[in-house]
């Protein structure tokens, strides 16, 4: 496989064929660095050295009635996580502000559950309005589950920029990871959000027993639904969940998956997301040559590396933060702390 030609094809028409995508996943480890360089050509063509920094605010943690097998917040989960009802309005704003001060250009407001009530949407809308009043340039993405009629319109009306609802895995594999809702529920929510003015943020979780063919399948399905922001998560097999102890990813496998997504999605924001620290390990900085987006600090119910380490990794790689022409320095102050409980403590993306 000529990876230079593949990169040029991705640049020219924004995508590669299913067979080419599968061949990328099946490259031998000794071609990984060549592959990273080729995917980097696509990243730099569309995004240069700019990286979009995202920050998660976990508005409500645990207590979810859905049974997604990978999730520490699922029905019946015995995972050792924080569980709390909705943060207060001021605590949610404080958490978002902490991420913005640390350099985040997008704040992701997340709440566990099947989907929001209209009261929940009103609650999130007030947070969005206040964030936009304070800093109109900040992007706000909401992630609240399956939407009902009128809810996407409400979120868009108050200035919400994007809606996240991951497909998570291929349609052909979906019944193996969840029984309380199906693939169509997820796809329809993403399409509904797009139709009502919200940018579609939707991605996948790799390492849940899917085949290479199914990774290609979900990559193409994400393209079909018009995802312009694609978070790529790597399974974190929480104790107390059905996928506990499930390990099948290597650093090279993760880099091949990221490169395949970059080739398929071309100009999209490809985000290296949860599990990057655990699975990419010492090769984590190479993911930034493929991906133009990452989460700062922690995730929803698990700790990532410290925010200063994320910023230092960007600085050492010569990257800029999206919206700024200034190169980062590796001496950024520690402005993102870890949350040890709900309320005013502001930095666990749980």
From TrEMBL:
Pathway connected to this protein = Cofactor biosynthesis; biotin biosynthesis; biotin from 7,8-diaminononanoate: step 2/2
- The record's free-text note on cofactor binding: Binds 1 [2Fe-2S] cluster. The cluster is coordinated with 3 cysteines and 1 arginine.
Q: Protein name, please?
A: Biotin synthase
| Statement: the UniProt record of this protein carries the keyword Iron-sulfur | yes
Question: Could you tell me the keywords of this UniProt record?
Answer: 2Fe-2S, 4Fe-4S, Biotin biosynthesis, Iron, Iron-sulfur, Metal-binding, S-adenosyl-L-methionine, Transferase
The protein's Enzyme Commission number? 2.8.1.6
| UniProt catalytic activity | (4R,5S)-dethiobiotin + (sulfur carrier)-SH + 2 reduced [2Fe-2S]-[ferredoxin] + 2 S-adenosyl-L-methionine = (sulfur carrier)-H + biotin + 2 5'-deoxyadenosine + 2 L-methionine + 2 oxidized [2Fe-2S]-[ferredoxin]
Which intervals hold domain Radical SAM core?
49-273
Q: How does it assemble?
A: Homodimer.
Q: Specify which residues bind [4Fe-4S] cluster according to the UniProt entry for this protein.
A: 64, 68, 71
The record's listing under InterPro entries reads:
Aldolase_TIM (IPR013785), BATS_dom (IPR010722), Biotin_synth/BioAB (IPR002684), Biotin_synthase (IPR024177), Elp3/MiaA/NifB-like_rSAM (IPR006638), rSAM (IPR007197), rSAM_sf (IPR058240)
Please name the source species.
Answer: Tessaracoccus lubricantis
Q: Which residues bind [2Fe-2S] cluster?
A: 108, 141, 201, 271
Answer yes or no on keyword 4Fe-4S: yes
Query: What cofactor(s) does the depicted protein rely on?
Result: [2Fe-2S] cluster; [4Fe-4S] cluster
Its function?
Answer: Catalyzes the conversion of dethiobiotin (DTB) to biotin by the insertion of a sulfur atom into dethiobiotin via a radical-based mechanism.
What protein family is recorded?
Belongs to the radical SAM superfamily. Biotin synthase family.
């Amino acid at each position: 496989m000529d990876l230079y030609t593949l990169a040029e094809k991705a640049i020219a028409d924004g995508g590669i064929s299913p067979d080419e995508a599968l061949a990328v996943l099946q490259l031998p480890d000794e071609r990984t660095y060549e592959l990273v360089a080729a995917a980097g050509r696509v990243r730099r063509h569309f995004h240069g050295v700019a990286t979009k920094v995202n920050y998660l605010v976990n508005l409500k943690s645990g207590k979810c009635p859905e049974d997604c097998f990978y999730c520490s917040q699922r029905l019946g989960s015995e995972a050792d996580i924080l569980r709390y009802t909705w943060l207060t309005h001021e605590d949610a704003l404080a958490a978002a502000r902490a991420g913005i001060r640390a350099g985040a250009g997008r704040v992701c407001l997340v709440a566990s559950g099947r989907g929001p009530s209209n009261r929940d949407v009103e609650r999130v809308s007030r947070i969005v309005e206040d964030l936009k009043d304070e800093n109109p340039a900040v992007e706000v993405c909401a992630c609240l589950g399956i939407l009902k009629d009128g809810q996407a319109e409400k979120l868009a009306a108050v200035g919400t920029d994007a809606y996240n609802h991951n497909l998570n895995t291929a349609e052909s594999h979906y019944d193996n990871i969840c029984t309380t809702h199906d693939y169509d529920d997820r796809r329809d929510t993403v399409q509904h959000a797009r139709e009502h003015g919200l940018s579609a943020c939707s991605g996948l979780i790799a390492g849940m027993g899917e085949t290479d063919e199914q990774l290609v399948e979900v990559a193409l399905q994400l393209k079909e639904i018009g995802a312009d922001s694609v978070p790529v998560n790597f399974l974190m097999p929480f104790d107390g969940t059905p996928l506990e102890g499930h390990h099948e990813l290597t650093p090279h496998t993760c880099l091949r998956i990221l490169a395949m997504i970059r080739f398929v999605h071309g100009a999209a924001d490809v985000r290296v997301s949860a599990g990057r620290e655990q699975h990419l390990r010492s090769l984590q900085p190479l993911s930034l040559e493929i991906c133009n987006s990452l989460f700062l600090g922690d995730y929803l119910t698990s700790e990532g590396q410290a925010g200063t380490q994320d910023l230092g990794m960007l600085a050492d790689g010569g990257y800029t933060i999206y919206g700024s022409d200034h190169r980062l320095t590796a001496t950024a102050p520690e402005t993102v702390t870890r949350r040890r409980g709900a309320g005013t403590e502001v930095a666990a993306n749980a």
